[in-house]
């Protein structure tokens, strides 16, 4: 057994000592991806290989806090039912000894390649004293990975450009013709976020191509987890900028994730684009990554948690989860829309209407609203006073998610603009034991949040102001 395999084995043994606790947690999610125990952040290596979806994730198997990153791994045939796989990567080499940071996966010659960032701390200040390099690991069966002997495959940033030497991470790789490309998260020396583009013929030797995009002065100090893909005739750069200042109802999450929609010129390797737009307006959505489904849909998954947020499940030996897989597309105004994949309908039990107790399942409410209407929905209501409030104001056309009384855990309010379409508003709300994902008008806007009510808090109410109507209220409990 080599060093890497030993590190994996040791981590796996430790996870078993916490599994029961984590799985018995009353907040444990029923149909979202979580760890067997302990900490998770970003989705990594979202891909298809040998007829299955593969999703890896940033995993700290030794505690419910962030620490030296491993890669956890799950697979699925349908994006709905996920099977736990052995830990795929563990820090074990001089170049990744303090963490196998985020990255991606791609099939080549019948093998699954992972490209990830090796992280090394070179001193006590984790913002300044670090060295990040790009590495490869390869697997024949898609389950057991060997680190490439020639690692790191990118060990330095290109010289002579305004590129910070060490904040250099999160490779997302894809293929076009005979060329592999990858984008990498970066910053300038005076702290503007940017994305670097590289190319390779074989995934092992990489050549710097261009600084593909860079933030304007003061927009963000670092762009993490970039992903570039074609979508309905445009190119979309999806990434997670850190340090964006709130503006009105925008950029209110602790950190943001969003897109630049534009055109990547394949000759000059420049990218012209529109303004940055948020992917989700809730509280807990970060570091999304995409893959293509075999039938050509672009599917994204994000970390359903947030840096610097309270995570009450830590007391039960776990932390963090993935959002539902969401299909993305462009609307007529080149806005990115997203909605949970249709495969999730497989989870639906018998449809209910009337007196509802929505808990683990999907709720769909349709409104017919006058221009001055207020619609209000109370979810996860408890006798102890708990409630999560969704409110729509037809005058301002703002949808508001209020989790101040949602239970233990972080509070707060988020809002987003949802235009009323011919007086109609449809909300699809996916609820799990400690999460809520709200989709307005089937993907126009979404709001995602962790909430921590008591299991008994399953009361529900919906009302609208006079002269407006609730056209329908349907609920599907989900099989977990
Ligand atoms: C994003 C991130 C990445 C990094 C990883 C470390 O959430 O900060 O940039 O690779 O998490 O876990």
Automatic annotation (TrEMBL):
Boundaries of every Glycosyl hydrolase family 32 C-terminal domain copy: 362-476
EC number: 3.2.1.26
Family: Belongs to the glycosyl hydrolase 32 family.
The keyword Transit peptide is assigned to this record: no
InterPro entries listed in its UniProt record: ConA-like_dom_sf, GH32_Enzymes, Glyco_hydro_32, Glyco_hydro_32_C, Glyco_hydro_32_N, Glyco_hydro_beta-prop_sf, Suc6P_hydrolase
Alphabetical list of Pfam families matching this protein: Glyco_hydro_32C, Glyco_hydro_32N
UniProt key word Hydrolase: yes
Keyword field: Carbohydrate metabolism, Cytoplasm, Glycosidase, Hydrolase
One cellular-component annotation, GO: cytoplasm
Reaction(s) catalysed by this chain's protein: Hydrolysis of terminal non-reducing beta-D-fructofuranoside residues in beta-D-fructofuranosides
Pathway: Glycan biosynthesis; sucrose metabolism
SUPFAM superfamilies: Arabinanase/levansucrase/invertase, Concanavalin A-like lectins/glucanases
Protein name as annotated: Sucrose-6-phosphate hydrolase
Gene Ontology biological process terms, A to Z: sucrose metabolic process
Entry function: Enables the bacterium to metabolize sucrose as a sole carbon source.
């Amino acid at each position: 057994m080599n060093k890497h395999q030993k590190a994996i084995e040791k981590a796996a043994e430790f996870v078993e000592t916490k599994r029961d606790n984590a799985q018995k947690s009353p907040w444990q999610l029923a149909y979202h991806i979580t760890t067997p125990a302990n900490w998770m952040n970003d989705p990594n290596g979202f891909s298809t290989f040998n007829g299955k979806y593969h999703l890896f994730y940033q995993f700290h198997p030794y505690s419910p806090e962030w620490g030296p990153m491993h890669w956890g791994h799950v697979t699925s045939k349908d994006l709905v039912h996920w099977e736990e796989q052995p830990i795929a990567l563990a820090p074990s080499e001089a170049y990744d000894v303090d963490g196998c940071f985020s990255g991606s996966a791609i099939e080549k010659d019948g093998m699954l390649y992972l490209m990830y960032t090796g992280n090394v701390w070179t001193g006590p200040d984790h913002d300044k004293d670090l060295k990040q390099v790009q590495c490869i690991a390869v697997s024949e069966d898609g389950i057991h990975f060997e680190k490439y002997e020639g690692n790191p495959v990118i060990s330095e940033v290109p010289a002579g450009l305004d590129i910070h030497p060490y904040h250099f991470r999160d490779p997302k790789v894809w293929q076009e013709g005979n060329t592999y490309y990858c984008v990498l998260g970066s910053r300038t020396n005076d702290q503007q976020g940017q994305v670097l583009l590289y190319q390779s013929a074989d995934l092992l030797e990489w050549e710097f191509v261009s600084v593909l995009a860079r933030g304007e002065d003061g927009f963000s100090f670092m762009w993490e987890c970039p992903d570039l893909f074609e979508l309905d005739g445009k190119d979309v750069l999806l990434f997670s900028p850190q340090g964006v200042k709130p503006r009105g109802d925008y950029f209110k999450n602790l950190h943001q994730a969003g897109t630049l929609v534009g055109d990547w010129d394949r000759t000059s390797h420049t990218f012209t684009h529109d303004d940055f737009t948020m992917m989700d307006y809730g509280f807990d959505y970060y570091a999304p990554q995409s893959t293509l489904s075999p039938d050509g849909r672009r599917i994204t998954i994000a970390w359903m948690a947030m840096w610097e947020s309270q995570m009450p499940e830590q007391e039960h030996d776990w932390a963090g989860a993935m959002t539902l897989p969401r299909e993305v597309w462009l609307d007529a105004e080149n806005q990115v829309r997203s909605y949970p994949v249709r495969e999730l309908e497989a989870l639906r039990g018998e449809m209910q209407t009337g007196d509802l107790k929505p808990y683990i399942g999907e709720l769909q409410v349709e409104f017919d609203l006058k221009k001055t209407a207020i619609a209000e929905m109370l979810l996860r209501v408890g006798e102890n006073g708990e409630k999560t409030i969704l409110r729509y104001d037809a005058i301002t056309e703002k949808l508001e998610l209020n989790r101040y009384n949602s239970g233990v855990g972080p509070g707060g309010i988020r809002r987003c603009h949802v235009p009323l379409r011919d007086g109609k508003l449809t909300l699809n709300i996916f609820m799990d034991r400690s999460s809520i994902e709200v989709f307005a008008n089937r993907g126009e806007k979404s709001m995602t949040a962790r909430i921590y009510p008591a299991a008994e808090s399953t009361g529900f109410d919906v009302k609208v102001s006079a002269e407006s109507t609730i056209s329908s209220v349907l609920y599907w409990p989900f099989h977990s």
